[in-house]
Amino acid sequence: MKDRLITPSYCFILAANFLLYFGFWLMMPVLPFYLTEVFGADKFTMGLVLSCYTIAALCIRPFSGYLLDTFARKPFYLLAYFIFTSIFGGYLLAGTLLLFAIIRAGHGVAFGLLTVSNSTVAI
Fold first, then answer.
1. pTM, 2 dp
2. Using CA atoms, how far apart are residues 1 and 100, in angstroms rounded to an integer?
């Protein structure tokens, strides 16, 4: 019996991965304008707030492998994906720049967990 490369699970992972990066890249060009208009942030503050995402994602990735080995991979992936998509609404609810930065860092943590678990579940 020959193993199939294209399976329903694989197609699900491909679609989820597409939506993950689509949402990520859809937000990137809009956020600087949003921070300027809503919070009146200058360029330096804007850079700090937006970099919280990347810094949080980089800091969580070494630990995400351990978490994936400790917990079941597919439920962990689905939980990380749920958290990642839920946080998009948090940007609109942020009333202060500090809260926006905290939400941005939490989104980065979810992104870091999700990208590592996505690659692991796909294999």
1. 0.88
2. 53
Domain enclosing residue 18, as ranges: 8-122
> How many other C-beta atoms lie within 10 A of the C-beta of residue 113?
24
Q: How far apart are CA 35 and CA 31, in angstroms?
A: 6
Using only the alpha carbons of the chain, give its radius of gyration.
16
100 domain-assigned = yes
Burial class (CB in 10 A: 0-12, 13-18, 19+), 97: middle
With H, G, I as helix, E, B as strand and everything else as coil, classify residue 62: helix
**Structural domains in the chain (count):** 1
Scan for tokens 């990735």, then name that residue.
61
> 110 and 70 in contact (C-beta within 8 Å)?
no
Q: How confident is the model at residue 11 (pLDDT cuts 50, 70, 90)?
A: confident
